[in-house]
Write a structure and sequence with these properties.
120 residues, alpha+beta, Arc Repressor Mutant, subunit A, 3-stranded antiparallel β-sheet, two-stranded antiparallel sheet, 5 helices, globular
Length: 120
């Protein structure tokens, strides 16, 4: 997974794609291509998810039993695998979201210490 601007590519923290996939599946079953497009759309096209990153992440999440997979037919009448969040995955989404929030707050305190103290 990378940012759209290839010249200023930002490597994301390990586990970030897993969190974004879990969050995307919170709304219901989705096939792989739609997961990638939803992440791109919801990030206002800042984040790009390549197949070489997406499908290994999906397999990893299946192995952990955070998501499940079923065969189905896509909107354009093609066979597709639909991924769903499991009960274990919903719990993990809460855990990962809390960890992400703590990490983001800690980084913000370091990058902008004056703002955290209520000073301009």
């Amino acid at each position: 997974m990378s940012t759209k601007d290839g010249n200023n590519r930002i490597e994301l923290l390990q586990g970030t794609l897993d969190l974004l996939i879990l969050r995307t599946l919170q709304r219901g079953p989705v096939h792989g291509h739609a997961i990638a497009k939803a992440i791109e759309r919801n990030s206002e096209d800042v984040l790009q998810v390549e197949q070489g990153s997406l499908y290994p992440a999906l397999h990893r999440l299946i192995k952990r039993r955070w998501i499940s997979v079923e065969e189905g037919v896509s909107e354009n009448n093609r066979r597709a695998k639909y991924y769903s969040l499991t009960a274990k995955g919903r719990k993990q989404l809460d855990v990962e979201t809390t960890k992400w929030d703590k990490l983001a707050q800690a980084i913000a305190r370091i990058l902008r210490p004056a703002e955290q103290d209520g000073k301009p």
